[in-house]
Specification:
2 copies of one chain form a homodimer.
Chain A lengths: L1 E6 L3 H12 L4 E7 L5 H8 L3 E4 L8 H11 L4 E6 L4 H9 L4 E4 L5 H11 L4 E2 L1 H10 L6 H10 L5 H8 L3 H15 L4 H10 L4
Parallel strand pairs in A: 1-2, 1-3, 3-4, 4-5, 5-6
Helix pairs in contact in A: 4-6, 7-9, 7-10, 8-9, 9-10
The structure holds a DNA duplex (30 and 30 nucleotides).
DNA sequence: CGCCGGCCGTGACAGGTGTCATGGCCAGGA
DNA sequence: TCCTGGCCATGACACCTGTCACGGCCGGCG
C-alpha cells in the first residue's frame, strides 16, 4: 500500500484527485492539505511515502516544500503536479530534490502509474517538458535581475519598484535594461512574461 | 440518473472530477471535453442534462459556451466551475444563462449537491461571491475601453495595441486614459489588473 | 597581485506614455 | 428638433522609460 499526501490549494481539485487515486487498490490517500507550509507536519504525522505537490500554493511553493522534505524527511518522495509546464520549473524541481514532474494536462489514468514509479524510486518527468527544459537552458539572468523583474511583472512604475527594492531608480532601470537585453525583449513587460514563461522567476 | 458533461482543459483535473462524480450513484458522467468549442456537439450527442464548465478553455470560454447552450439546447443546464472567483464573472455567467457558479475552492463533497440542485432547476451561487458581486457593481467601462484594456494586459506598447485594434495611437491613449480614470488606477497596467480582478474584461 | 564580473549609482538623450483641450461623426432620448 | 454620450482623431505638454557611457565597490580566480 502506497501512502500518499495531496497538497493543492483548490479544495475541489484536491478532493477530486483523492477520489481518483482511491480507485486504485494499492494507493491510499493518508493526508490532504491546502497550504505549502502545512505539508511537512502533515507528512510527518501521516507517515506519507509520496507527496503530490502543486507549485502555486499559499505559504510555501511546491518547489520550496520539496526542498524542505528532502532536508527533513529524506525517505519521502516528492511528485510535482502543476498547471504550468514552464521549462525552468523542471530544472528547479529536480534541483529541489523532487522525484517527478507532471503537468495537469496529463491523462488521468497515467497519474497512478506515475505515483507507483516514484514510489519505486524512479524518476518521472513529462517527456515534452524534459526536452523543452534542456532546450531552453538555465536562466541567463543574475539573481538581482530576476528579483527586479519579479517586482516588475505587475507593471508598477520604476519608482515603485525602486522603493520596494530599496534601490535608486537609475539602478532599477539598468537592471531592467539588462534583463530586457538578455531575454531578447523590447519592453520590461515582455521581458517579465518571457522570464515567467520559462520559469526563470 | 443525472447525465453530466465535463469541460475543463486540464485532463488530470477533468479525469479526477469524473472519478469524484462517479462515486455518486445518481450521477453519470456521459462526456468529457477539453475545449470550449467541442462542448455543444458533445452535449448534443451525449444527451447531457448538466454541463460542468470551466471558464478558461481554448476555443471558447465557459461563459460563451453557456450562452451557446442556452440558445441551442435550452433544456441543458450550465454550471460554471472555475479557478478565479471574480465578481464580474458571476454577473456575466448569469447573464449568459448559467444556472450555477462555483469556485474550485469549494469543498469536494459539495459538488454533487450543487449538481443535483442545478439539475432540479435551482440556482447555485457561491455565497461569498454573490455578495461580492453585488458590492462591486457592473463594469464602469464602455465596450471599447474594455476591448483596448484587454489588449493592454500583456504590457504591449500603445503602438502595438493601436495596430491590433486598427486605431490611431491617440485614440488608444484616450481610451486607456479613460479606463485608468474610471478604475481609479494610475497606470494602464494597474487598470488592466483591476479590471481583470473584477471580471470586467 | 591584477583581472573579471556582478552590483550600485549618476547623468544625458531619444522615444514612449498619460493628460488635456478640441473637434467631428453618429445613434438614441427628451 | 436639440442634446447627450460613446467613438474616433489630432495636437501639445509634462513626465516616465529604455539605452548608453561612465565610475566606484567588492568577491573570486588565475
Amino acid at each position: 500500500m502506497i501512502r500518499i499526501l495531496l497538497a493543492d490549494d483548490q479544495a475541489l481539485v484536491r478532493g477530486a484527485l483523492a477520489a481518483l487515486l482511491d480507485l486504485e487498490t494499492d494507493i491510499e490517500v493518508v493526508a490532504q492539505v491546502g497550504r505549502g507550509d502545512e505539508v511537512l507536519a502533515a507528512a510527518r504525522s501521516s507517515q506519507a511515502e509520496v507527496c503530490l505537490l502543486d507549485i502555486e500554493m499559499p505559504g510555501l511553493t511546491g518547489l520550496e516544500v520539496a526542498e524542505q522534505l528532502r532536508a527533513e524527511l529524506p525517505a519521502v518522495r516528492s511528485l510535482i503536479v502543476t498547471t504550468f509546464g514552464r521549462p525552468g520549473y523542471v530544472r528547479r524541481a529536480l534541483d529541489a530534490g523532487a522525484a517527478g514532474f507532471l503537468v495537469k494536462d496529463t491523462p488521468a489514468r497515467e497519474l497512478a502509474a506515475a505515483v507507483r514509479r516514484v514510489h519505486a524510486g524512479l524518476r518521472v518527468i513529462d517527456p515534452d517538458l524534459a526536452t523543452e527544459s534542456l532546450m531552453s537552458g538555465p536562466s541567463p539572468l543574475t539573481a538581482r535581475e530576476s528579483e527586479i523583474l519579479q517586482l516588475a511583472i505587475d507593471g508598477s512604475p520604476v519608482a515603485v519598484i525602486a522603493q520596494r527594492a530599496s534601490l535608486s531608480v537609475g539602478t532599477v532601470r539598468n537592471h531592467l535594461s539588462a534583463a530586457i537585453g538578455k531575454t531578447g525583449a523590447t519592453t520590461r513587460a515582455e521581458a517579465a512574461q518571457l522570464a515567467r514563461a520559462n520559469g526563470w522567476i
